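Hi team,

Below is the intake form for DUF6194 family protein from Streptomyces evansiae. Please confirm the fields before the structure is written into the shared record.

FORM ID: S-0412
PROTEIN: DUF6194 family protein
ORGANISM: Streptomyces evansiae
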Amino acid sequence: MSIEHILAAVRRLDGALVVVAGPDSGFPPLAHGDAFFFHAPDGHVPARTQPYGTVITKDYPGDTSSRLDAPGRHRVNVHAGRLATRRHAPGGTADPAATDVFFPHPLYGARGWLSVVNPGPRTTDTLLGLLRTAHEAVRARHERRAGPR
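The structure came back. Fields below:
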């Protein structure tokens, strides 16, 4: 699944904001070229809120196990929750450099983040479902906090 396909799928979610970091995005230069997914019906990156999903296109300091600096590689990360992470990455022993295989995020897996490098036929449908579920969870939390209208 291409990065463009992933971004298009998330953009179709109600209230989704996809930010591809660049010079004018407010994100640090290291993040440029990477994508971050938020629930933001007003079109602005929410303050004090972490994204519920990301597409990372390069290695970061302390996070090189997926070998993302190799050409044509990207990793999709989604805050799927601990239960979903255990379900889709049982035992947490998958190679974080393997493609089209779910594994706990190399740094945030214990916090319920699930990852896949270069999603393909084995992971695409599940990944898109997990991104929808994560988006809906953030949307519902946003609506609860906003209270009755």
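SUMMARY LINE: The mean pLDDT is 94.

Thanks, M.
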